[in-house]
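User: C-alpha coordinates in, sequence out, please.
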Protein backbone atom coordinates (compact mmCIF):
# COMPACT_ATOMS: atom_id res chain seq x y z
CA UNK A 1 0.00 0.00 0.00
CA UNK A 2 1.16 3.54 -0.76
CA UNK A 3 0.27 5.48 2.39
CA UNK A 4 2.18 8.57 3.55
CA UNK A 5 3.27 8.42 7.21
CA UNK A 6 2.01 11.97 7.78
CA UNK A 7 1.03 15.08 5.85
CA UNK A 8 4.63 16.37 5.77
CA UNK A 9 5.57 13.48 3.48
CA UNK A 10 3.22 14.92 0.86
CA UNK A 11 5.17 18.16 0.44
CA UNK A 12 6.77 18.62 -2.99
CA UNK A 13 6.50 16.56 -6.13
CA UNK A 14 3.86 18.95 -7.49
CA UNK A 15 2.81 18.36 -11.12
CA UNK A 16 3.21 20.40 -14.28
CA UNK A 17 0.17 21.20 -16.42
CA UNK A 18 -0.01 22.63 -19.93
CA UNK A 19 -1.79 26.00 -20.22
CA UNK A 20 -3.35 25.65 -23.64
CA UNK A 21 -6.19 28.19 -23.37
CA UNK A 22 -4.79 31.33 -21.76
CA UNK A 23 -1.75 31.02 -24.05
CA UNK A 24 -3.77 30.42 -27.21
CA UNK A 25 -2.16 32.05 -30.24
CA UNK A 26 1.32 32.21 -28.67
CA UNK A 27 4.09 30.05 -30.16
CA UNK A 28 5.93 28.74 -27.06
CA UNK A 29 4.67 25.92 -24.86
CA UNK A 30 3.58 27.34 -21.50
CA UNK A 31 3.17 25.07 -18.48
CA UNK A 32 2.47 25.72 -14.80
CA UNK A 33 4.24 24.27 -11.76
CA UNK A 34 1.27 23.64 -9.45
CA UNK A 35 2.77 24.58 -6.10
CA UNK A 36 -0.66 25.44 -4.72
CA UNK A 37 -1.29 21.67 -4.62
CA UNK A 38 1.10 21.23 -1.70
CA UNK A 39 -0.82 20.12 1.43
CA UNK A 40 -0.69 23.60 2.98
CA UNK A 41 -1.71 25.22 -0.31
CA UNK A 42 1.52 26.96 -1.32
CA UNK A 43 5.16 26.72 -2.35
CA UNK A 44 6.11 27.77 1.20
CA UNK A 45 5.36 24.28 2.55
CA UNK A 46 8.78 23.29 1.22
CA UNK A 47 10.70 25.82 3.30
CA UNK A 48 8.57 25.59 6.46
CA UNK A 49 9.49 21.97 7.08
CA UNK A 50 13.12 22.45 6.01
CA UNK A 51 13.72 25.40 8.38
CA UNK A 52 12.24 23.55 11.36
CA UNK A 53 14.21 20.35 10.74
CA UNK A 54 17.43 22.35 10.39
CA UNK A 55 16.73 24.19 13.66
CA UNK A 56 16.10 20.88 15.44
CA UNK A 57 19.40 19.42 14.19
CA UNK A 58 21.28 22.51 15.36
CA UNK A 59 19.61 22.60 18.78
CA UNK A 60 17.93 25.96 18.14
CA UNK A 61 14.45 24.48 18.56
CA UNK A 62 13.70 22.05 21.37
CA UNK A 63 10.59 20.11 22.39
CA UNK A 64 7.87 22.44 23.63
CA UNK A 65 9.51 25.46 21.97
CA UNK A 66 7.79 28.39 20.30
CA UNK A 67 8.26 29.26 16.61
CA UNK A 68 7.79 32.95 15.76
CA UNK A 69 7.74 34.13 12.13
CA UNK A 70 6.82 37.27 10.15
CA UNK A 71 4.77 36.05 7.19
CA UNK A 72 2.36 37.11 4.48
CA UNK A 73 0.49 33.92 5.35
CA UNK A 74 1.88 31.09 3.28
CA UNK A 75 5.13 30.53 5.16
CA UNK A 76 3.09 30.61 8.34
CA UNK A 77 0.91 27.77 7.05
CA UNK A 78 3.99 25.80 6.00
CA UNK A 79 5.38 26.19 9.51
CA UNK A 80 1.97 25.43 11.01
CA UNK A 81 1.82 22.03 9.27
CA UNK A 82 5.14 21.02 10.80
CA UNK A 83 4.35 22.61 14.17
CA UNK A 84 1.08 20.67 14.41
CA UNK A 85 2.80 17.35 13.69
CA UNK A 86 5.82 18.05 15.93
CA UNK A 87 4.00 19.74 18.81
CA UNK A 88 5.40 23.29 18.71
CA UNK A 89 3.61 26.54 19.52
CA UNK A 90 3.52 28.95 16.57
CA UNK A 91 3.13 32.75 16.60
CA UNK A 92 2.83 34.54 13.24
CA UNK A 93 3.06 38.29 12.69
CA UNK A 94 1.32 39.59 9.57
CA UNK A 95 0.87 42.93 7.80
CA UNK A 96 -2.69 44.24 7.91
CA UNK A 97 -3.00 44.14 4.10
CA UNK A 98 -3.10 40.34 4.12
CA UNK A 99 -6.47 38.72 3.54
CA UNK A 100 -8.77 37.67 6.37
CA UNK A 101 -8.78 34.15 4.95
CA UNK A 102 -5.04 33.86 5.62
CA UNK A 103 -5.45 34.91 9.24
CA UNK A 104 -8.34 32.50 9.71
CA UNK A 105 -6.38 29.67 8.08
CA UNK A 106 -3.41 30.14 10.41
CA UNK A 107 -5.70 30.19 13.43
CA UNK A 108 -7.39 27.02 12.17
CA UNK A 109 -4.00 25.28 12.39
CA UNK A 110 -3.63 26.54 15.98
CA UNK A 111 -1.25 29.42 15.27
CA UNK A 112 -1.50 32.73 17.11
CA UNK A 113 -1.72 35.71 14.76
CA UNK A 114 -0.46 39.23 15.53
CA UNK A 115 -1.55 41.84 12.95
CA UNK A 116 0.83 44.78 12.32
CA UNK A 117 0.55 47.92 10.15
CA UNK A 118 1.65 47.74 6.51
CA UNK A 119 2.49 51.43 6.05
CA UNK A 120 5.66 51.47 8.17
CA UNK A 121 9.29 50.89 7.10
CA UNK A 122 10.87 47.46 7.80
CA UNK A 123 13.05 48.91 10.56
CA UNK A 124 10.06 50.36 12.46
CA UNK A 125 9.38 48.65 15.83
CA UNK A 126 5.76 48.33 14.62
CA UNK A 127 6.64 46.41 11.42
CA UNK A 128 5.73 42.76 11.38
CA UNK A 129 9.44 41.92 10.99
CA UNK A 130 10.46 43.73 14.18
CA UNK A 131 7.43 42.60 16.19
CA UNK A 132 8.35 38.98 15.40
CA UNK A 133 11.94 39.58 16.50
CA UNK A 134 10.76 41.07 19.79
CA UNK A 135 8.31 38.24 20.53
CA UNK A 136 10.93 35.57 19.75
CA UNK A 137 13.47 37.29 22.01
CA UNK A 138 11.03 37.71 24.91
CA UNK A 139 9.57 34.17 24.71
CA UNK A 140 11.39 31.35 26.58
CA UNK A 141 12.36 28.72 24.03
CA UNK A 142 11.48 31.11 21.20
CA UNK A 143 12.92 30.48 17.74
CA UNK A 144 12.73 32.83 14.74
CA UNK A 145 13.23 30.86 11.48
CA UNK A 146 13.41 34.19 9.59
CA UNK A 147 12.69 33.09 6.03
CA UNK A 148 14.29 36.32 4.77
CA UNK A 149 17.76 35.28 5.94
CA UNK A 150 17.53 31.54 6.58
CA UNK A 151 19.74 29.64 4.08
CA UNK A 152 17.33 26.69 4.25
CA UNK A 153 14.88 28.79 2.23
CA UNK A 154 16.82 28.73 -1.07
CA UNK A 155 18.37 25.37 -0.14
CA UNK A 156 14.94 23.72 -0.08
CA UNK A 157 14.30 24.85 -3.65
CA UNK A 158 17.81 23.93 -4.80
CA UNK A 159 17.30 20.38 -3.53
CA UNK A 160 13.64 19.86 -4.50
CA UNK A 161 11.98 22.44 -6.78
CA UNK A 162 14.90 22.80 -9.20
CA UNK A 163 15.45 19.04 -9.71
CA UNK A 164 11.69 18.49 -10.12
CA UNK A 165 11.50 21.12 -12.87
CA UNK A 166 14.49 19.61 -14.67
CA UNK A 167 13.21 16.04 -14.47
CA UNK A 168 9.58 16.86 -15.30
CA UNK A 169 10.59 18.69 -18.50
CA UNK A 170 13.30 16.17 -19.45
CA UNK A 171 15.76 19.08 -19.34
CA UNK A 172 13.95 21.00 -22.09
CA UNK A 173 12.86 23.97 -19.94
CA UNK A 174 14.04 27.26 -21.50
CA UNK A 175 12.41 29.85 -19.20
CA UNK A 176 11.32 29.84 -15.54
CA UNK A 177 8.99 32.67 -14.50
CA UNK A 178 8.61 33.25 -10.75
CA UNK A 179 7.07 35.95 -8.58
CA UNK A 180 9.92 37.12 -6.31
CA UNK A 181 9.37 37.73 -2.59
CA UNK A 182 12.05 36.49 -0.20
CA UNK A 183 13.90 35.31 -3.31
CA UNK A 184 14.29 31.76 -1.98
CA UNK A 185 12.43 30.04 -4.81
CA UNK A 186 14.04 31.95 -7.66
CA UNK A 187 17.50 31.67 -6.05
CA UNK A 188 17.40 27.95 -5.19
CA UNK A 189 15.58 26.65 -8.25
CA UNK A 190 17.37 29.12 -10.51
CA UNK A 191 20.79 28.08 -9.27
CA UNK A 192 20.05 24.38 -9.85
CA UNK A 193 18.70 24.94 -13.36
CA UNK A 194 21.60 27.22 -14.32
CA UNK A 195 24.02 24.49 -13.23
CA UNK A 196 22.23 22.09 -15.55
CA UNK A 197 21.98 24.53 -18.46
CA UNK A 198 23.44 28.03 -18.23
CA UNK A 199 21.22 29.21 -21.10
CA UNK A 200 17.97 28.75 -19.16
CA UNK A 201 16.43 32.18 -18.60
CA UNK A 202 15.20 33.04 -15.09
CA UNK A 203 12.50 35.72 -15.18
CA UNK A 204 11.51 37.62 -12.03
CA UNK A 205 7.91 38.88 -11.93
CA UNK A 206 7.60 41.87 -9.60
CA UNK A 207 4.67 44.04 -8.45
CA UNK A 208 4.62 47.76 -9.24
CA UNK A 209 5.71 49.31 -5.95
CA UNK A 210 8.40 46.76 -5.06
CA UNK A 211 12.03 47.68 -4.50
CA UNK A 212 13.28 45.07 -6.98
CA UNK A 213 12.14 46.97 -10.07
CA UNK A 214 11.61 50.57 -9.00
CA UNK A 215 10.39 53.04 -6.42
CA UNK A 216 8.65 51.73 -3.31
CA UNK A 217 4.94 52.44 -2.84
CA UNK A 218 1.95 50.44 -1.56
CA UNK A 219 0.51 47.67 -3.72
CA UNK A 220 -2.21 45.05 -3.25
CA UNK A 221 -0.60 41.83 -4.47
CA UNK A 222 0.36 39.68 -1.49
CA UNK A 223 3.41 37.52 -0.87
CA UNK A 224 5.82 38.91 -3.47
CA UNK A 225 7.85 42.09 -3.86
CA UNK A 226 9.85 43.64 -1.04
CA UNK A 227 10.93 46.99 0.37
CA UNK A 228 14.41 45.63 1.24
CA UNK A 229 16.81 43.01 -0.15
CA UNK A 230 16.51 39.71 1.80
CA UNK A 231 19.65 37.72 2.51
CA UNK A 232 18.04 34.69 0.85
CA UNK A 233 17.94 36.38 -2.55
CA UNK A 234 20.73 36.33 -5.14
CA UNK A 235 19.73 38.94 -7.76
CA UNK A 236 22.51 37.76 -10.10
CA UNK A 237 20.40 34.69 -10.91
CA UNK A 238 17.57 36.75 -12.41
CA UNK A 239 18.19 37.30 -16.11
CA UNK A 240 15.21 39.55 -16.67
CA UNK A 241 12.62 41.42 -14.62
CA UNK A 242 8.99 42.01 -15.56
CA UNK A 243 7.09 44.70 -13.65
CA UNK A 244 3.36 43.94 -13.34
CA UNK A 245 0.51 46.09 -12.04
CA UNK A 246 -2.01 44.95 -9.43
CA UNK A 247 -4.77 45.15 -12.02
CA UNK A 248 -2.95 42.93 -14.53
CA UNK A 249 -2.06 40.47 -11.76
CA UNK A 250 -5.61 40.10 -10.47
CA UNK A 251 -7.34 40.01 -13.83
CA UNK A 252 -4.86 37.37 -15.06
CA UNK A 253 -5.46 35.25 -11.94
CA UNK A 254 -9.20 35.43 -12.63
CA UNK A 255 -8.59 34.44 -16.26
CA UNK A 256 -6.62 31.38 -15.12
CA UNK A 257 -9.53 30.29 -12.97
CA UNK A 258 -12.17 30.79 -15.63
CA UNK A 259 -10.20 29.67 -18.69
CA UNK A 260 -7.95 26.95 -17.27
CA UNK A 261 -9.96 25.90 -14.20
CA UNK A 262 -6.99 26.64 -11.92
CA UNK A 263 -7.83 28.70 -8.80
CA UNK A 264 -4.68 30.68 -7.94
CA UNK A 265 -3.67 33.76 -5.96
CA UNK A 266 -2.56 37.18 -7.13
CA UNK A 267 1.16 36.40 -7.23
CA UNK A 268 0.45 33.57 -9.67
CA UNK A 269 -1.42 36.11 -11.79
CA UNK A 270 1.68 38.32 -11.66
CA UNK A 271 3.90 35.48 -12.87
CA UNK A 272 1.39 34.40 -15.53
CA UNK A 273 1.08 37.92 -16.95
CA UNK A 274 4.89 38.17 -17.14
CA UNK A 275 5.06 34.78 -18.87
CA UNK A 276 2.49 35.83 -21.48
CA UNK A 277 4.48 38.98 -22.21
CA UNK A 278 7.71 36.99 -22.57
CA UNK A 279 5.98 34.42 -24.80
CA UNK A 280 5.12 37.10 -27.37
CA UNK A 281 8.83 37.41 -28.16
CA UNK A 282 9.65 33.68 -28.42
CA UNK A 283 9.21 30.90 -31.00
CA UNK A 284 7.82 27.39 -30.75
CA UNK A 285 11.09 25.95 -29.41
CA UNK A 286 10.63 27.70 -26.05
CA UNK A 287 9.23 25.88 -23.01
CA UNK A 288 8.12 28.39 -20.38
CA UNK A 289 7.40 27.16 -16.86
CA UNK A 290 5.36 29.49 -14.64
CA UNK A 291 5.37 28.84 -10.91
CA UNK A 292 1.91 29.10 -9.31
CA UNK A 293 2.80 29.90 -5.71
CA UNK A 294 -0.52 29.57 -3.89
CA UNK A 295 -4.24 28.91 -4.14
CA UNK A 296 -6.96 31.45 -4.75
CA UNK A 297 -8.93 30.12 -1.76
CA UNK A 298 -7.10 32.64 0.41
CA UNK A 299 -8.36 35.53 -1.73
CA UNK A 300 -12.08 34.85 -2.17
CA UNK A 301 -12.92 38.09 -0.32
CA UNK A 302 -10.55 40.09 -2.52
CA UNK A 303 -9.47 39.01 -6.01
CA UNK A 304 -12.55 36.86 -6.55
CA UNK A 305 -14.96 39.37 -5.03
CA UNK A 306 -16.32 41.65 -7.77
CA UNK A 307 -17.24 44.45 -5.36
CA UNK A 308 -13.73 44.54 -3.82
CA UNK A 309 -12.27 44.60 -7.32
CA UNK A 310 -14.54 47.50 -8.31
CA UNK A 311 -13.84 49.45 -5.13
CA UNK A 312 -10.12 49.23 -5.86
CA UNK A 313 -10.49 50.20 -9.53
CA UNK A 314 -9.64 46.78 -10.97
CA UNK A 315 -13.06 46.13 -12.51
CA UNK A 316 -15.06 48.70 -14.46
CA UNK A 317 -17.81 50.41 -12.48
CA UNK A 318 -18.51 53.29 -14.85
CA UNK A 319 -20.58 52.12 -17.86
CA UNK A 320 -19.02 54.45 -20.47
CA UNK A 321 -15.31 54.49 -21.32
CA UNK A 322 -13.90 57.88 -20.33
CA UNK A 323 -10.53 59.29 -19.38
CA UNK A 324 -9.27 61.87 -16.92
CA UNK A 325 -8.98 64.30 -19.82
CA UNK A 326 -12.73 63.98 -20.46
CA UNK A 327 -13.42 65.09 -16.89
CA UNK A 328 -11.03 68.02 -17.15
CA UNK A 329 -12.56 69.19 -20.45
CA UNK A 330 -16.04 69.19 -18.95
CA UNK A 331 -15.14 71.49 -16.08
CA UNK A 332 -16.54 75.01 -16.26
CA UNK A 333 -16.19 78.25 -14.34
CA UNK A 334 -12.54 78.24 -13.24
CA UNK A 335 -9.17 78.53 -14.98
CA UNK A 336 -7.36 75.26 -15.64
CA UNK A 337 -4.92 75.40 -12.74
CA UNK A 338 -4.66 77.93 -9.94
CA UNK A 339 -1.57 77.84 -7.73
CA UNK A 340 -0.20 79.76 -4.78
CA UNK A 341 3.46 80.32 -3.91
CA UNK A 342 4.77 78.93 -0.64
CA UNK A 343 6.16 82.39 0.16
CA UNK A 344 2.73 84.11 -0.08
CA UNK A 345 0.64 84.65 3.02
CA UNK A 346 -2.07 82.32 4.23
CA UNK A 347 -4.47 85.26 3.89
CA UNK A 348 -3.75 85.54 0.17
CA UNK A 349 -4.39 81.81 -0.26
CA UNK A 350 -7.74 82.17 1.51
CA UNK A 351 -8.64 85.16 -0.67
CA UNK A 352 -7.78 83.16 -3.78
CA UNK A 353 -10.04 80.29 -2.69
CA UNK A 354 -12.93 82.71 -2.16
CA UNK A 355 -12.32 84.53 -5.45
CA UNK A 356 -12.48 81.34 -7.54
CA UNK A 357 -14.88 79.33 -5.36
CA UNK A 358 -12.42 76.48 -4.82
CA UNK A 359 -11.46 74.56 -1.69
CA UNK A 360 -7.88 73.48 -2.41
CA UNK A 361 -4.84 74.86 -4.23
CA UNK A 362 -1.47 73.37 -5.21
CA UNK A 363 1.53 75.14 -3.70
CA UNK A 364 4.54 75.98 -5.87
CA UNK A 365 8.06 76.88 -4.88
CA UNK A 366 7.94 80.08 -6.90
CA UNK A 367 5.99 81.40 -9.85
CA UNK A 368 3.93 79.15 -12.13
CA UNK A 369 3.58 75.38 -12.31
CA UNK A 370 4.92 74.50 -15.73
CA UNK A 371 6.01 71.01 -14.65
CA UNK A 372 5.12 68.60 -11.85
CA UNK A 373 8.41 69.22 -10.08
CA UNK A 374 7.38 72.85 -9.50
CA UNK A 375 4.61 71.73 -7.12
CA UNK A 376 5.87 71.31 -3.56
CA UNK A 377 2.67 71.01 -1.54
CA UNK A 378 -1.02 71.83 -1.22
CA UNK A 379 -3.42 73.81 0.94
CA UNK A 380 -6.98 72.76 1.67
CA UNK A 381 -9.89 74.75 3.01
CA UNK A 382 -10.83 72.29 5.76
CA UNK A 383 -7.39 71.81 7.28
CA UNK A 384 -6.54 75.50 6.94
CA UNK A 385 -9.70 76.42 8.81
CA UNK A 386 -8.75 74.11 11.66
CA UNK A 387 -5.29 75.66 11.91
CA UNK A 388 -6.31 79.30 11.54
CA UNK A 389 -9.31 79.02 13.89
CA UNK A 390 -7.03 77.77 16.66
CA UNK A 391 -4.18 80.17 15.79
CA UNK A 392 -5.57 83.31 14.05
CA UNK A 393 -2.11 84.87 13.70
CA UNK A 394 -1.31 82.22 11.10
CA UNK A 395 -3.13 84.25 8.42
CA UNK A 396 -0.11 86.54 8.23
CA UNK A 397 2.38 83.65 8.05
CA UNK A 398 3.73 82.14 4.84
CA UNK A 399 1.78 79.36 3.14
CA UNK A 400 4.63 76.93 3.69
CA UNK A 401 3.74 76.99 7.41
CA UNK A 402 0.36 75.32 6.76
CA UNK A 403 0.87 73.45 3.50
CA UNK A 404 0.47 69.67 3.23
CA UNK A 405 1.78 67.06 0.80
CA UNK A 406 1.11 67.56 -2.93
CA UNK A 407 -2.06 66.01 -4.31
CA UNK A 408 -1.74 62.55 -5.91
CA UNK A 409 -1.09 62.76 -9.66
CA UNK A 410 -3.24 61.11 -12.33
CA UNK A 411 -2.36 61.21 -16.01
CA UNK A 412 -4.86 62.67 -18.48
CA UNK A 413 -4.88 59.40 -20.44
CA UNK A 414 -5.89 57.22 -17.46
CA UNK A 415 -9.35 55.72 -17.16
CA UNK A 416 -11.98 57.58 -15.14
CA UNK A 417 -12.12 54.52 -12.86
CA UNK A 418 -8.76 55.62 -11.45
CA UNK A 419 -10.33 58.90 -10.31
CA UNK A 420 -13.09 57.07 -8.51
CA UNK A 421 -10.67 54.66 -6.83
CA UNK A 422 -8.38 57.43 -5.56
CA UNK A 423 -11.11 59.84 -4.42
CA UNK A 424 -13.21 57.16 -2.75
CA UNK A 425 -10.10 55.95 -0.92
CA UNK A 426 -9.80 59.34 0.79
CA UNK A 427 -7.71 61.58 -1.47
CA UNK A 428 -8.98 65.18 -0.94
CA UNK A 429 -8.25 66.04 -4.58
CA UNK A 430 -6.16 64.84 -7.52
CA UNK A 431 -3.78 66.67 -9.83
CA UNK A 432 -4.40 65.83 -13.48
CA UNK A 433 -1.27 65.97 -15.63
CA UNK A 434 -0.31 65.54 -19.24
CA UNK A 435 3.02 63.73 -18.91
CA UNK A 436 5.03 66.16 -16.73
CA UNK A 437 2.75 69.19 -17.23
CA UNK A 438 0.13 69.91 -14.52
CA UNK A 439 -3.29 70.51 -16.05
CA UNK A 440 -6.03 70.77 -13.43
CA UNK A 441 -7.26 69.85 -9.97
CA UNK A 442 -10.06 67.28 -9.80
CA UNK A 443 -12.32 66.82 -6.75
CA UNK A 444 -15.22 64.53 -5.87
CA UNK A 445 -17.57 67.32 -6.92
CA UNK A 446 -15.94 67.49 -10.36
CA UNK A 447 -16.28 63.74 -10.86
CA UNK A 448 -19.87 63.80 -9.66
CA UNK A 449 -20.69 66.65 -12.06
CA UNK A 450 -19.05 64.77 -14.94
CA UNK A 451 -21.03 61.57 -14.25
CA UNK A 452 -24.29 63.54 -13.98
CA UNK A 453 -23.51 65.35 -17.25
CA UNK A 454 -22.81 62.05 -19.01
CA UNK A 455 -26.08 60.60 -17.75
CA UNK A 456 -27.98 63.59 -19.14
CA UNK A 457 -26.17 63.27 -22.46
CA UNK A 458 -27.25 59.63 -22.74
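Assistant: Sequence out:
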Amino acid sequence: MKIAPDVLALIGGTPLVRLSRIGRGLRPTIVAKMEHLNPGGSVKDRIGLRMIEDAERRGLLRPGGTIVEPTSGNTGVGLALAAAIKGYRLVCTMADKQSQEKRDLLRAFGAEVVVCPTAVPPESPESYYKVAERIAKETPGGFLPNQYYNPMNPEAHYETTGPELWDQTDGTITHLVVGVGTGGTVTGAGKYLKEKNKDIQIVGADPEGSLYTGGIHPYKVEGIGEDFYPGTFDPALVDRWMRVSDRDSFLTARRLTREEGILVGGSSGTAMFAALEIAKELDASALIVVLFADSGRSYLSKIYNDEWMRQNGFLARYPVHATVLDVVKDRMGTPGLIVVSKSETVRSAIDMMQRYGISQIPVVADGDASKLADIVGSVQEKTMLDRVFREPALVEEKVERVMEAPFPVVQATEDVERLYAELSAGAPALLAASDERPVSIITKADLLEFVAHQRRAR
